[in-house]
Backbone:
C-alpha cells in the first residue's frame, strides 16, 4: 500500500477521534452545567457564560486538531 494512502487513513482516523473527543467533552460540560443550574438557579447566568466559554475552547481545540490532520495528510 502506498505511504500516501496511510497518511490519508491516519488523517481520517485522527479527525474522527478529534470530533468524537470534542463531542464527549461538550456533553460532559453541558451535563455538569445543567446539574449546577438545577441546584442553584440563581447562579445560572454565570454558569451559562462559563459553559459557553469552555465549549468554545473545546471547539477551538477540535478545529486545531482537524487542521493538523489535514496538514499532515498532505505531506
Residues:
Amino acid at each position: 500500500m502506498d505511504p500516501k494512502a496511510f497518511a490519508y487513513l491516519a488523517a481520517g482516523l485522527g479527525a474522527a477521534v478529534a470530533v468524537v473527543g470534542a463531542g464527549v467533552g461538550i456533553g460532559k460540560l453541558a451535563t455538569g452545567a445543567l446539574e449546577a443550574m438545577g441546584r442553584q438557579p440563581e447562579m445560572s447566568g454565570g454558569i451559562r457564560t462559563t459553559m459557553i466559554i469552555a465549549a468554545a475552547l473545546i471547539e477551538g481545540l477540535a478545529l486545531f486538531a482537524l487542521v493538523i490532520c489535514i496538514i499532515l495528510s498532505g505531506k
About this structure: The longest helix spans residues 3-39. The chain has one domain: 9-70. The chain has a mean pLDDT of 93. DSSP finds two helices and no strands in the chain.
